[in-house]
Amino acid sequence: MKFARYLGWIVQALVLGVLLFIAIANLISVGSGASIFRYQGF
Amino acid sequence: MCRVSTTPQPEQPQEHAGIAAFAREFARAAVQPALPPLLGALAIVIALFTIAITTITPTFMARIDPGMLMTDERDEFGFLTAYAFHLRHDPPKSPTVVLVGASGFQHAIPSAKVMSEMLSEKLGRPARVSNMTIGGCTLWESASIIDFLDDRVQGVYVVNVSMSKLGWPDSRMEFLSQSPRLGFSTELFDEEVREAGYRPSSRTGIYALDNFKFLLARLKSLRNIVIGPVKISRYSPTAHVVSEDEWPEHIEEYLPFLRDYEEHNKARYASLSRLIEHVRANRSEIALVQAPMNPRMTRAIPDELKQRYQQELEAFADDHDVPLWELDAEAHLTEDDFRDRSHINSPEARRRFADALTNRLSQLLRHRLGESEVRQ
Asked: What is the reported pTM?
């Protein structure tokens, strides 16, 4: 049963890790004002 | 005859019970908060940031399909950044022309492939035209693109000029210096930032960190790993055509740019001067091309200002000994060829403009190639 628990933890860590990465990246993006500015709209 | 045993297997219920217990334990561990998966998640975040920083390098940018960096079909700055890295990494061997400028120029020319074919035919040898135009590209960004390329890609750089581009106030550099739209930095751009009175961003020398705003703004492009590269769309056949009722307001919108020209042209001519000097130092040629303008808009500009602009631009070109091409008349552009004050809407007009442009380019390239053959 230890193997099942470890496997569950790995899946949880992977999903959390990727979501956390995207969330942090988005946070930095919003905080730093990173955006796509087209034409002369600035 | 085949005999099938109907006696039940004694191991099966035990086996099922084992799988069910395994699944229960797995599901419980996968959803229940616990310290080990949390630490694992933090390690994955650090690993992903490390992978991104070490993987996204200039070499990586030169290898990916430019469409992979685009968030949508109009993300021209994303496309152009990757395309510029491609050109730098693998410069063309044949005589090269790089077209740089904004949407007015972009809409006046057909695809780079068609331009290359037209130019090759006129030149009598293979030539390559690279279309590096972007909607809303400023003179500073044009200079940055050229600076990024011209030590590797030697040839002719055609820069689009217009009254509005030569009227951009220094104050607009404040935004661009903090949020560069191109995914690379250059010395010439930094110099322009300083000349405008601002401080260039500090650099670490690590590509992904130095361009993090450009990259983070394109997080959405991660989905391209699954759906594939985005295809750039430079001309929109369904773009809005300015109606008769909208024209007065459309002209009004342009007038502030004209006022800006009167006030800020000296600073922009100085920028253009630095660009010309830079291109020549890297043994390339530079030519200026006037952005096409709807005759209806041209008529709306006060004559006195029009003449002054014309005289100043011509005097500048003479002083710096650079070709200045005004192709509207040669391409027989009429009001019907435009959808608004500056964007050509007709493929036929685009062809005529390209024909006039490639005529000038072939002369310039012939002169340049003749000179280099003499040097050899």
From this structure: 0.88
- Contact B298/B306 with Cβ under 8 angstroms? yes
State the smallest CA–CA distance between residue B235 and chain A in angstroms.
14
In angstroms, the CA B68 to CA B182 distance is 15
Asked if B95 contacts B129 with a C-beta cutoff of 8 angstroms, the reply is no
Q: What is the ipTM for the molecules in this complex?
A: 0.90
Q: What is the pLDDT of residues B263-281, one digit of tens each?
A: 999 999 999 999 999 999 9
Q: pLDDT tens across B3-55, in order?
A: 545 555 555 667 788 899 999 999 999 999 999 999 999 999 999 999 999 99
Given strand B285-290, what is the order of strands in its sheet? B128-133, B96-101, B156-161, B285-290, B324-325
The answer to whether the CB atoms of A34 and B30 lie below 8 A apart is: no
Backbone angles phi, psi at B166, to 5 degrees: -85, 10
Token digits for B294?
């709807």
**Residues of A in Cβ contact (< 8 Å) with B49:** 21
CA gap B194, B52 in Å, rounded: 31
User: Rounded to an integer, what distance in angstroms lies between the CA atom of residue B35 and that of residue B138?
Assistant: 51
Chain B partners of A37 at a C-beta cutoff of 8 Å? 175, 179, 181
Contact B284, B147 (CB under 8 A): no
Compare all CA atoms of chain A with the CA of B37 and give the residue at the minimum distance: A13
DSSP state of B137: -
B chain contacts of residue A17, beta-carbon cutoff 8 Å: 40-45, 47-48
Find the residue in A nearest to B41 (Cα).
Answer: A17
Between the alpha carbon of residue B99 and those of residues B206, B261, B309, B361, the distances in Å are 29, 23, 23, 11
Chain A with chain B: Cβ pairs closer than 8 A: 128
Kindly list the residues from chain A whose CB atom is less than 8 angstroms away from the CB atom of residue B38: 13, 16
Closest alpha carbon to B341 in B103, B111, B75: B103
